[in-house]
Amino acid sequence: MATMSIGKAWEEAVAFVAREATLLFPVALLFVALPGLILQEMTPPELAAWSLSPTASTMPAVPLSYWLGLIVAVLLVWFGSLTLFALALRPGISVGEALRLGLNRLPVLIGTALVVIGALMAAAMVLVTVMILLSLVSKPLAAGGGVLLGFGLVGLALFASIRLMLLNPVVIDGSAGVMLSLRQSWSLTRGHFLRLLAFILITLIVSAIASTAAQAIFGLIGGLIGGAEAARLIGGVAGAVISTAIQVYMLVMIARLYRQALAD
């Protein structure tokens, strides 16, 4: 088994983005950044405050329009990511062709998401059942076991997300259905878990630092120009733009890693 090279993927991604920036960034801004900004503006203040310290007993009531907006935003981001992968994996493809291909393959990606969510929910139900049985034996044992089981579920979700990191390229680059796409993406990451985990953690840290810095700097400028509301809006836009730019490089790198895995 050949070693997956993050460095090579980075070099190829930098060269590709420099060459195709006029195709990639408009799609990313329209279908990744914009839905997130709109959803952010739709988020009720109570929900935003609750998300900072969530407790099941105090979750505020959220209007149906927000949940519908969330679903639409997620679908647009998925569609946008598939389009970006189409542009990254098929040199010479037009934006229109990439958009059509992304739309055609979106139902498969939705299906894979539903399967994965269903599997995680089933695992959660098993863990809850175990916790209930433990509570019948000992309340302190159940409390400690609940914490451990919670960490276990988070760890399982993290493991699955890394093993399925190449799912989008698999979906957009082929014609397989839901289950075969899941099996192929799982197979391609075999033996590369730690390398991919390090890659995604570093990317997330860099993205968080850069977007936070941009939000703070441009928010300060916006506050000097138009007050608190302008600071929030301008800072949010700047943070989203920087985060989206980093995501473009990340997606192109994942496309290059997918090509490496295919050649493995």
Automatic annotation (TrEMBL):
Q: Highest taxon of the source?
A: Bacteria
Where would I find the DUF7847 domain in this sequence? 4-260
InterPro entries from the UniProt entry: DUF7847
Q: Which UniProt keywords apply?
A: Membrane, Transmembrane, Transmembrane helix
Pfam (any one): DUF7847
Locate the transmembrane regions by residue number: 64-87, 108-136, 148-172, 193-221, 233-258
Q: What is this protein called?
A: DUF7847 domain-containing protein
